[in-house]
Amino acid sequence: MYIHQVAAYVPTQVITNEHFTRLNGLSHDWIIERTGIRERRKAAPGENTNTMATEVTRRVLAAVPAIAADSIDLIVGATYTPHDTIYTLAHAVQRELGVADIPVVSISSACSSLLNAVEIVEGYFAMNKATRALVIVSEHNTAYNNEEDTVAGHLWGDGAAALLISKERLADSDLRIVDLRTGGAAHVGKADTAVTLKPVEKGIVMPHGRDVFTHACQYMARVTSEVLERNKLEVNDVTYLIPHQANLRITKNVVQALGLPPERAISNIQDLGNTGCAGAAIALADYHPRLQPGERIIITVFGGGYSYGAMLLER
């Protein structure tokens, strides 16, 4: 499997830390120290998970004019902040493309959904049910967020990304998906209560942030090491690590546990906040054009609930 193109979309409205200082007294320095976040993006009125998904779909296809929309034969969408639980973001993308009679799937495994979506593509390709797929990850966190929550209200940002994945290499710049491993960890810690989003109650809450932090660090480092070991690679063979963009302290902890030079970790949380399952894909979109032949990237993720995964890519 090959990632042929990646595109990202983030809303234009910037919400700085000062907004939360005025709202609930959290200082800019305190937020930086605890999370690494300086600002985040907020969807405009009229924007939502589906509109961001369709916009990023336009962008990824515009980047490859030689590929016709009607050649897409699988769409997999991922989000935990749906605009509509029935007319999902994957349906919205299909309608945008105008392609009939193809598999259209939407999933949610919290912030790890990106890799689960790619794994679904892997299954369709293996069964010869598809050859060219779109994976769309889109999060409208601010639609659900309670900004007055001093525990987690300042964490969230909005954004989307799209991956065009093919069964065969289409260009020298394609990223080969060398390995992919995911797993669920709902049996450990406070997975059932650590992060929840119950729309009929009060939106996204995170009463057990320490539990999330601990398990995220452990699982992201562990699954990354497992993928490297399975492919007979050392940490020094990794050019870049793209972790789930949840907290800069988590990134630093994972990097330290792996023994990876800190400058090899890619982070966008400073500017975008936690954009859920879209965060790592947005980072990949930023770095994809500058990757050189032979370079390797590992994306590692962790989601509330709990779930985790790692994917090894090679240019």
UniProtKB/TrEMBL annotation:
<dbReference type="Pfam" id="PF08541">
    <property type="entry name" value="ACP_syn_III_C"/>
</dbReference>
<protein>
    <submittedName>
        <fullName>Ketoacyl-ACP synthase III</fullName>
    </submittedName>
</protein>
<dbReference type="InterPro" id="IPR013751">
    <property type="entry name" value="ACP_syn_III_N"/>
</dbReference>
<dbReference type="InterPro" id="IPR013747">
    <property type="entry name" value="ACP_syn_III_C"/>
</dbReference>
<dbReference type="GO" id="GO:0006633">
    <property type="term" value="P:fatty acid biosynthetic process"/>
</dbReference>
<dbReference type="GO" id="GO:0044550">
    <property type="term" value="P:secondary metabolite biosynthetic process"/>
</dbReference>
<feature type="domain" description="Beta-ketoacyl-[acyl-carrier-protein] synthase III C-terminal">
    <location>
        <begin position="228"/>
        <end position="314"/>
    </location>
</feature>
<dbReference type="Pfam" id="PF08545">
    <property type="entry name" value="ACP_syn_III"/>
</dbReference>
<dbReference type="GO" id="GO:0004315">
    <property type="term" value="F:3-oxoacyl-[acyl-carrier-protein] synthase activity"/>
</dbReference>
<keyword id="KW-0808">Transferase</keyword>
<keyword id="KW-0012">Acyltransferase</keyword>
<dbReference type="InterPro" id="IPR016039">
    <property type="entry name" value="Thiolase-like"/>
</dbReference>
<feature type="domain" description="Beta-ketoacyl-[acyl-carrier-protein] synthase III N-terminal">
    <location>
        <begin position="107"/>
        <end position="179"/>
    </location>
</feature>
